[in-house]
Amino acid sequence: MNIKYCVLSISLILVSILSLGLGHFENLLTHNAIPQYQESLQSIIDYRLPRLILGVLVGIALGLAGTLIQTIIHNHLVSPDILGVSAGSGLAVVLILLYLPLAQAIDISIASVIGGLITGGLVIGLSNFQHICPRRLVLIGIAIASSLMAGVDILLAVNPSHNQSAIIWLTGSLWAKGWQNIPLLLIALVVTIPIVAKMSWRLSIYGLGHDAASALGISPIKTRNITMLMVIALTGISISICGIFSFIGLMAPNLSRLLFKRNHELFIPSALVGSLILISSDLLAQHAFSPLELPAGIITSIIGSLFFLLVLRKAGSLL
Q: What's the DSSP call for residue 80?
């Protein structure tokens, strides 16, 4: 187990070093190295370091959210975006960007979380009161997500002169993110991670099924609702800051599951894998098509859609 954690950690460190230094290392080899070094160092501190830190934090948040949602739904093919949480947050943020362009970052984050809460509340409400099974719940989430994204498309169509910022945001990107974008997500993680750690044994019991959990003194509905609130908070705040990074919540827990078989062991590796996926995608988006820089969300969508098909093929008829 320790070796597996070491491999994940070393991979994350190596990609982080490349993300910080790629494009700046050659400046140190020039004959005028000192000015170039100072300029490169300032660029790293002002732009690349906060971008890297934010990528790590968003990856942690989405990796944890994906693991939590898969645990309570009992399905390895689900993620916050598939269940509609990302779409609900996305619709709320697009509304703010289009009709309140001067809104502060905290306003956007609040709107994003509220949008996710409304969507998640709808899904939870249907599940609690109509006893919908996890597989049907996934289908309902997909239907809700499709409807909400259609609403986003309508908003963009009727506001063609003001939709540029919303379109850029929808693709998911770490571009132009600075130190000011970090505190809110950091606070959310500081609050959420201890709760996840404290609830990990409950979630392991929950994974045995509702009857077994109830027999062991665990309230399935309460556990599911608290977990959904954490998923919505982590997803909503991440989306409000950087936009929608599709499939990270799907890929991180499934890749972690290849290394760690038991559910209660997945939270830390999923966080590491989520960070690794996002900063690797951002690195590829920055340099693979240089001088053109793509949004990292495009890379995660391409990789994630292929990964989803592979998982779907392996899972057979889970849905």
A: T
Residue 116 lies in a domain: yes
Contact predicate 21/284, CB 8 Å? no
pLDDT tens by residue, 56-68: 999 999 999 999 9
Q: Which one has a higher pLDDT value, 300 or 134?
A: 300
- Residue type (1 letter), 190: V
Segments forming the whole domain that contains residue 117: 53-315
Token pair, residue 74, equals 């009992």
Residue 159 lies in a domain: yes
Domain count, the chain: 1
Does residue 43 form part of some domain? no
User: C-alpha distances in angstroms, 188 versus 74, 193, 230?
Assistant: 25, 8, 9
pTM above 0.85, yes or no: yes
71-121 pLDDT, tens per residue?
888 888 888 988 888 999 999 999 998 888 888 888 888 899 899 989 988
Rounded to whole angstroms, the Cα distance separating 103 from 83 reads: 28
CA-CA distance, 95 to 152, in Å (whole number)? 8
| 88, 148 contact by CB (below 8 A) | yes
**Angle ∠(111,117,121) on CA atoms, nearest 5:** 155
Residue 274: name the closest of 264, 266, 285, 284 by CA: 266
Cβ atoms 254, 315 nearer than 8 A:
no
In a domain? residue 80: yes
Sorted by sequence, the CB contacts under 8 Å of residue 100 that are 6+ apart come out as 107
